[in-house]
Each structure stands twice: as C-alpha cells, then as structure tokens.
Specification:
Belongs to the short-chain dehydrogenases/reductases (SDR) family. Its main location: secreted. Helix content is about 50%, strand content about 15%. By secondary structure, the chain is α/β, with parallel strands linked by helices. The protein has a single domain (about 10-245), classed as Rossmann fold (3-Layer(aba) Sandwich). Strands 3-2-1-4-5-6-7 form a seven-stranded parallel β-sheet, sandwiched between helices. The protein is globular, with a radius of gyration of 17 Å.
Length: about 250
C-alpha cells in the first residue's frame, strides 16, 4: 500500500526522543525516507534502533556551520531534501527573574538560532529544486502565556514569526513554511520523570497548569503532533503556508 509521502525525503532535527522520534516514525510510516539529526552519537544510535532512518548527523545545530554540514550530509545520503522539520529545541523553563545569562542563551540558542541556521542551510537546495516543505515545531505557550514560559516564549515566538516572512519570500519558489504548535506533550521521558517520587515540585506545578487549561482535559501525545507534521509535509497541504497549526486540545482558540 502506498503512503502519502512515498518518494519524499525529510530531515528531522531533535529526532532522538519524544516529539522528534514520533515525527520520525510517522514520516517513515507514511513512506518518507528520513535523515535524523541529534546532539550526540548515543542519541543517534537510539534512533537507529527504533526507526528505519536512512542516515543521521550529530552536532550542535546552534553553532555556526553545523546546519550547513547537516544539510550537505543529508543531500549526500538522500539525493535531495523535500522536507525540513525543525524540531530540535528545549528551553530552560524558569521564572523570568530566575534566568541567568547562561540559561537565557541556551533557551534562545536551542530554539531560535537552531531553527534559523537550519532554514538558511536548506533553502538554497530547495530553491534550486523548486520545491520544499519547512515545518517548525513551535509552542502553544506563545499564545496561552503559560506560567514560567516568558523567556521560552520569546524564543519560540521568533520561530512562529519566521514562517510568515519565509512564505512571502519563497512561495514563488514552490516552498511552503508552517509551524506546528503543541501544548504540553506527555512524552515517555516526561512521563517517567513525573512518575518518579523525586520529580521537582515546580515541574509538577507547571505541567498541572498546562493541563488545566486544556478543554479536552489531557496533554497531547507525540503521535498527535506527528500527524500534523506529516500532513504539512505532504502534497495535500500544498495551499497551506505561513500558518501556525495548534495541536492543543483547545487550550487556545481562534
């Protein structure tokens, strides 16, 4: 049986666990050939064990030049790149005045700079082919104002805003750019942490607040986020660009 993404190739950053691994597995299930990017070699080995990826890259994508190396390696492995999923991220969730220069830079580097560098690295290739799908993973907290997320939202807000400019600039080149913005996602990693008696009280509080504002009464699942990404990566979404798709159970609307 053919899949919606048969013949398509994709880079997924932050592919080692949680949302990224869910996206990787879904794109492969839909027929795509996937190249995974992770922060270290052990993480990449875990992806190889859990998903039939075609290849991978290890590096800190917020460092200048790393994203260019990743795209070069992906093109060499895949032949071409149709889809870029900017999932790599991870903010330091702290009250605004508890942040330090180090945690602020980590939050912006991991989320905004990583996405900027990856987009700039892949665009010349996509423009040369006259086709591309860029899908950024944003955050519902940008709209809900979730507790202790102001600095994280500053970084993710830039990720959201980027797609509107990309759309205006590159639509004529056959490239669409969209954001998928999930609410709190109960990944296996977060579930294990919360099930531990040593889970920090502050983390529990943040997650309780994040769940309380969801009308459907629960967090999202990685597979639900991955389904939205798979749709935006395919041809059924060819007339959708410059948009943010909220996968949030109704926690923010409109």
């Amino acid at each position: 049986m053919s899949g919606a993404l048969d013949g398509r190739t994709a880079i997924v950053t932050g592919a080692a666990s949680g949302i990224g691994l869910g996206i990787t597995e879904r794109l492969i299930a839909d027929g795509a050939v996937v190249f995974a990017a992770t922060r270290d070699k052990d993480d990449l080995e875990l992806v190889y064990e859990q998903a039939a990826i075609a290849g991978g890259f290890v590096g800190e994508l917020h460092q200048p030049g790393a994203a260019d190396d990743m795209v070069e390696s992906a093109v060499a492995t895949l032949g071409h790149v149709d889809v870029l999923v900017n999932n790599a991220g991870g903010g330091v969730i702290l009250a605004t005045l508890d942040h330090t220069e180090e945690t602020l830079r980590a939050t912006v580097d991991n989320n905004l700079w990583t996405t900027i560098y990856c987009v700039r690295a892949v665009l010349p290739h996509m423009v040369s082919r006259g086709h591309g799908r860029i899908v950024n993973i944003g955050a519902d907290s940008v709209r809900t104002g979730l507790v202790d997320h102001a600095m994280y939202n500053a970084a993710k807000g830039g990720v959201h805003a980027m797609v509107t400019g990309l759309t205006r600039e590159f639509a004529a080149a056959g490239i669409t750019a969209n954001t998928v913005a999930p609410c709190y996602v109960r990944t296996r990693e977060v579930a294990r942490l919360l099930d531990s008696p040593d889970a920090p009280a502050r983390l529990r509080h943040v997650i309780e607040e994040a769940t309380a504002i969801v009308p459907l009464g629960r967090p999202s699942d990685p597979a639900e986020v991955a389904a939205a990404v798979a749709f935006l990566a395919g041809e059924d979404s060819r007339f959708i660009t410059g948009q943010t798709m909220y996968v949030n159970g109704g926690s923010s609307m409109g």
